[in-house]
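[Meeting: bench + compute handoff]

Bench side (C.D.) handed over the final construct sequence. Compute side (W.E.) agreed to return the predicted structure before the next meeting so the bench team could plan truncations. Sequence as handed over:
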Amino acid sequence: MEKDESKTSDEEETQESMEEEPMEGEEKEETEEAEETEEVEGLEEAEEAEELELEEEIVEERIYTVPLREAWRTPRQKRTPRAVRILRSFIERHMKPESIVITNEVNERLWRRGIKKPPRKVRIRALRDKEGRVTVRLAEGD
């Protein structure tokens, strides 16, 4: 009978320990959620700091509608790269920059439909800073 009693006491101990400890899956989910919220907060803070830096340095801001119809006169497989070159030359002609930075959002807008079908025109916001560098972004609402 002593053997049976030892088994029941062992079973009771394991049941108690299981109740006290959270399941492994629950622990992982909680830590993943906490990490995600920290990452999101960090990204938001970084974006806000970046915007503040840009606002301080901006000397001039202009909004343009850049016609890209000339890109359609080239062979299909060269149209979007040509549209990027047309955008750069347009900014050089109108803003006279030291250097040009085209943001990812503008690049993605040009390449959204692939190499064969760039947009006919794109509305952009050109920002010049103290050093003469021009940053090209999409205009608000586009």
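W.E. noted at the follow-up: DSSP finds four helices and four strands in the chain. C.D. will use this when planning the next construct.
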